[in-house]
Amino acid sequence: MSLISELVKYSNKTYEKGFVSATDGNLSLRLDNNRIAITRSGINKGDVTEHDIIIIDNQGNKLEGNGQASSELKIHLLAYNNRTDVKAVVHCHPVYATAFATSKADFTQPVFPEVILTIGPVPLCKYGTPSTEELPNSMKPHIQHSWAMLLENHGAVTFGEDIASAYNRMEKLEHTAKTIFISKLLGGKNILSEYEVEKLYSIAENTYGIKSLSKHNNLEGKSYSNMAQNSLTNSEISFSDIIDARLRARAGNQIFNKYNKPLNSKPINKS
To answer: Which helix (H) or strand (E) holds 12?
Structure first.
């Protein structure tokens, strides 16, 4: 499947999944060092075809296509021009994630193992008027260390090594937002401690070859990695079962996303 065909496929999926309505949202991917493919302005993402894809350069100048590139292209250019590892961008207005963004909430606390490893902390960007420089400017403080962001009173944006990974992060972000929303109705969410996060990193490294750059080597004079392994041996819960198959796509990475360094956290609590 060509890159353009993949962009069309995932544009349609954002509509099918309810992450956008009407003509909301925009998706893009990098074709090469000088060209970016992006959905055109004013098109329902469920109706996008290859004829609705615009080719632009790194400054946003139109090179090919019918119509105008998405008015939100500044979001995409910010990512591509600041992160060489970003090859695709997905911007949507998923209901639960957008509700959290409107409530000025973020997802920077470690709650779900698969989110810690595949997305990392999700910051909240201050409100910026859409289609203006205010919006990308609000993202700048986080662009170097985030794979997903909430946009206050607006929506969410995710980045990826390809369009599939960018889309999957958006899907996981919305699933996380919905689950946390329901957990709040049931009394609150449990926050994983730093020890539990480190134990998770240890499992990810041993199972998938994904390494954490965190330097916590000892705890009470014992190897942190060994403690994690011993804990797993004696535990009824297998964190390797919790980490789903999507992590296998990242197997072979020699360095785990350095921006996912664990936050200093207290023992499990409710909020």
So the answer is: helix 3-16
Most confident of 116-125, 177-186, 197-206: 177-186
Q: What is the mean pLDDT of the chain?
A: 81
Q: Is pLDDT of 267 > 90?
A: no
Q: Where are the domains of the chain?
A: 3-185, 194-260
The three-state secondary structure class of 100 is helix
Q: Do 111 and 177 form a contact (C-beta atoms < 8 A)?
A: no
User: 52: helix, coil or strand?
Assistant: helix
Question: Which range has the worst mean pLDDT, 8-22, 58-72, 212-226?
Answer: 212-226
What percentage of the chain reaches a pLDDT higher than 90?
Answer: 63
Question: Are the CB atoms for 163 and 10 separated by under 8 Å?
Answer: yes
Domain 3-185: give its CATH superfamily. Answer: Class II aldolase/adducin N-terminal domain (3.40.225.10)
Q: Can you name the residues that pair with 157 across neighbouring β-strands?
A: 91, 149
Beta bridge partners of 124: 150
C-alpha dist (Å) from residue 240 to 95, 165, 196, 202, 264: 30, 21, 13, 10, 23
- Cα 97 to Cα 64, 105, 149, 178: the distances in Å are 33, 9, 10, 7
